[in-house]
Write a structure and sequence with these properties.
Blueprint: H1 11-24, H2 37-44, H3 48-61, E1 64-67, E2 73-76, H4 81-92, H5 99-119, H6 123-126, H7 128-140, H8 148-161, H9 166-188, H10 199-217, H11 221-235, H12 237-242
Antiparallel strand pairs: 1-2
Helix pairs in contact: 1-3, 4-9, 5-9, 5-10, 5-11, 7-8, 7-10, 8-9, 10-11
């Protein structure tokens, strides 16, 4: 019987693991700067190449960014939906995934978030006011060219962000960011002089949003899910038609650092 060898972790991996744990457990927070390499040599009792490799590992993980020059150093970054969205986009792009694929996923997933919003016991203070604020912004800037799409996107992002389930907020929120980046590229790019929606369609979408918030406020999860699904099925047709020839582009996600 063959004995499988267990690979021993390299020294650099052990150092990276310790520092990663410091970041993920909150001992190091967003914006903190890692100790100097000289201090890390002394703390861990390892060679300079091992520390440099550990820093490179954390940089590849997206947990730090290394600044050069007089104000140099390794700056800590906490994991975020933006970084997750960028990574998902990089996985989807070589698979030739399309915005329609992302939209289809959200048509199934976002209504679940709407239902969860409706089940929150604190929904009248932690959900409804944020959705109303997004609707108010839509109404206030309804006649401002170029503002309808980002304001509408804010409403949908809040549905996810306020659902109360952290794994869903991260995963579905990342898909929302990918879709938002695509939608912005469509209507700020070659189609920037076109109106993505006529006034009648925009007002109908606003009514959909208002009815959805009403269902959430009433605590009616079934109605909230149904209204969200019906709205999403219709709301993205213009963007998908205008960007039908596109695939997911990781470069559209803003640099999260």
């Amino acid at each position: 019987m063959s004995v499988q060898r267990i690979r021993q972790p390299r020294v650099a991996e052990l150092v990276a693991s310790r520092l990663r744990d410091d970041i993920l457990t909150g001992r190091l927070t967003e914006g903190d700067v890692l100790p100097s390499q000289e201090a890390l040599f002394a703390e861990f009792g390892v060679s300079p190449p091992a520390v440099r490799e550990a820093v490179h590992i954390l940089e590849s993980d997206g947990l730090i960014s290394v600044r050069r020059g007089n104000v140099g150093g390794a700056v800590v970054h906490l994991p975020s939906a933006e970084r997750t969205a960028q990574m998902i986009s990089m996985v989807l792009q070589p698979r030739a995934a399309t915005p329609a694929d992302v939209s289809d996923a959200l048509v199934h997933l976002e209504p679940v978030c709407a239902g969860l919003c409706a089940t929150r016991p604190d929904r009248l203070s932690e959900v409804v006011p944020y959705l109303r604020e997004a609707i108010d912004a839509q109404i206030e800037q309804l006649d401002v060219p170029g503002r309808y799409v980002p304001n509408a996107r804010r409403f949908h992002e809040q549905i996810v962000a306020r659902c109360g389930n952290e794994p869903m907020i991260l995963v579905i929120g990342s898909l929302e960011l990918i879709w938002s980046a695509h939608e912005s590229s469509v209507w700020n790019g070659e189609h920037h002089e076109e109106d993505p929606m006529d006034p009648t369609t925009m007002r109908a979408a606003l009514r959909d949003h208002d009815r959805l918030v009403g269902a959430i406020a009433d605590g009616d999860a079934v109605r909230a899910q149904r209204l969200a699904a019906d709205h999403l099925a219709a709301a993205r047709r213009n963007t998908l038609a205008a960007g039908a020839d596109k695939t997911i582009q990781a470069k559209l996600i803003s640099n999260p650092d």
